[in-house]
Amino acid sequence: MSGLAIRLDCPGDRGFRLGLDCTLPGAGVTAICGPSGSGKTTLLECIAGLRDPGPGALVRLGDTTWHGAGDPTPPWRRDIGYVFSDARLFPHLSVRGNLDYARKRRAPNAGADTADVVAWLELDELLERRPETLSAGQRQRVAIGRALLRAPRLLLLDEPLANLDAGASTRCLRCLQRLTGELALPMIYVSHAIEEVTQLADHLLLLEAGRAVAQGPLLELCSRLDNRLSREEGAAAILHATVASHDAHYGLTALDVEGHTLWVTGLDATPGSGRRVRIPARDVSLCRRAPDDSSILNILPVTIDAIEYTGAARATLRLALGGQFLLARITRRSVEKLQLQPGDNVYTQIKSAALLMEATDPP
Amino acid sequence: MSLSSAELDAIYLTAALATVTTAILLLVGTPLAWWLSRRRGNGPALVEALVALPLILPPTVLGFYLLLMFAPDTAFGRAWEALTGSRLAFSFSALVIGSVIYSLPFVVQPLQSAFGRVPESLLQTAATLGAGPADQFRSVVLPLTARSFVTAASLGFAHTVGEFGVVLMIGGNIPGETQVLSIALFDYVESLRFAEAHRLAAGLVAFSLLVLFLLYRGEGRRALRLQPADEQP
To answer: How far is the C-alpha of A55 from the C-alpha of B202, rounded, in Å?
Structure first.
């Protein structure tokens, strides 16, 4: 199945034009990231048919053209689930009523069972409640369930965690993670926070002032030096790892990354499972020789792939570890003192690495 | 104290007039109020002004123009006679037409303001869940504004019961055909039959008070169940 083809050139809400010509994958989770006002929501509204992008625009999933040939398909005839950042539950219906609203309007014999959706999103306790008695996180999970019960071919999520506290956000994310495992449903996930989408997304589209500035597989984009992600204060590489073993005595888990061992704290990962690891660039340092007296556990041999100077004082380095890449943020002075050049084999000390949720990446 | 047959006729006629008028008003007023609540611009503003006109115009002005229009020698009067086979002037139908125009703002305005409070975002949400425009209206707008339909219907009904000037101008005073309560009351006063006048007047006061009391009590008890979407409980 081919992907979601989008060609737009229409005015956005804040004075910019949304100009886009791209094809997003027709499977997996595609994250659309960008600062507020970069056109993320406008893009979703054009896909869903809530906003008219005007003549000449194209919105097509596989062989279904929603906008482009003839009259645009109205939103109620597009098989698209839309989760709004403010949930938008119907205030006159219970949770069950909200779920049934979508189920009653879908094609017969299509889509997931209510019972499954309720289980995936942990809604069983909430079914008879009224929306106004729910917490923000509960409301958002109901909204996701409702969108799924519409039996969509594409699920759009517009900053679903924006109004949630950390706990509710984690729970919501865990449910979404579960959905990506249970359903072969392409999702487009809009967020201004890259940290949020690194948990879920397979593919990433970076938007700035209505333009696509980068697009590609998430793991690849996060470790490249030619886009804004590597210049951000919180720049971090995402690596794919396999859980190797537990060290219960020290409360550590050993991960295998490209044949090397990476230690992380905690024991909650299942050995043998594939996980993503997030390594912030500022927690990675370099040395010419392997130190044998460091407090840092993770010291790995890497090859310098590229160096980019960001500002007068700092440099960001891309480091190859087998087929994957790390980012290191060090001072320009250190680069010169150690005479670091692309191609050099050096050792990297990793001060912290965070295990992300169950990955959906192929091993 | 028992009511005379003429008085019973007037009560029955008044109730029939108010019922028919209210039914027509809901049918006409609902789409009109919906249109007004979703449109901005000069056209809708002019329509809104026309709808509100009976609120400030002396009823006799309205009655005067309607009377001219209903005359059998006008295009409207002739068309009516050709279609229905009966004359419009001084008939029950004339009263219904006059009442519909006269009470229109009392039905349209509460509905319009209730429709205006239904957030566009909920209608968009319904659309993304597969509901077309008619379905959105039935499944989202109607349940959220049900209370205002009761208000609009009650106000339309009560206001039609209380109308006088328009009815006097276009209905004449034909017992059993166009003599409604307010006209019958006027008759009594003119012929100095104050005891009977008191009976009808007090009855109308009691009826109007009861309607308004029930309305306000209901409003207080169950306000429109709408909340800002980002409100945290």
So the answer is: 66
- The residue among A233, A8, A224 whose CA lies nearest residue A216 is A224
* Per-position DSSP letters for A152-194, written without gaps between them: -SEEEEESTTTT--HHHHHHHHHHHHHHHHH----EEEEES-H
Strands A274-280, A260-265: parallel, antiparallel or unpaired by DSSP?
unpaired
Q: Enter the tokens of residue B24.
A: 């027509």
The residue of chain B nearest to residue A80, with distances taken between CA atoms, is B128
Q: What does the block give as tokens for B29?
A: 């007023």
Question: Does B114 touch chain A if contact means CB atoms closer than 8 Å?
Answer: no
Return all residues near A273 (Cβ < 8 A) that are at least 6 apart.
A242, A243, A358
Predicted confidence pLDDT, tens digits, chain A (363 residues): 579 999 998 887 777 788 899 999 999 999 999 888 888 999 999 999 999 888 889 999 988 999 987 889 999 999 999 999 999 999 999 999 999 999 999 988 788 899 999 999 999 999 999 999 999 999 999 999 999 999 999 999 999 998 888 889 889 988 998 898 888 899 999 998 888 888 889 999 999 888 888 899 988 888 888 877 887 778 889 998 999 999 999 989 999 999 999 998 887 778 888 888 899 999 999 999 888 888 888 999 999 999 999 888 899 999 999 889 999 999 999 999 999 999 999 999 998 878 786 544 443
Which of B121, B128, B131 is facing A80, going by the closest CB pair?
B128
pTM of this prediction?
0.83
* ipTM, 2 dp: 0.83
- Confirm or reject contact between B131 and chain A (CB < 8 A): yes
Give the contacts of B182 (CB within 8 A, at least 6 positions apart).
B14, B161, B162, B163, B164, B167, B204
Least Cα separation, residue B218 to chain A (angstroms): 17
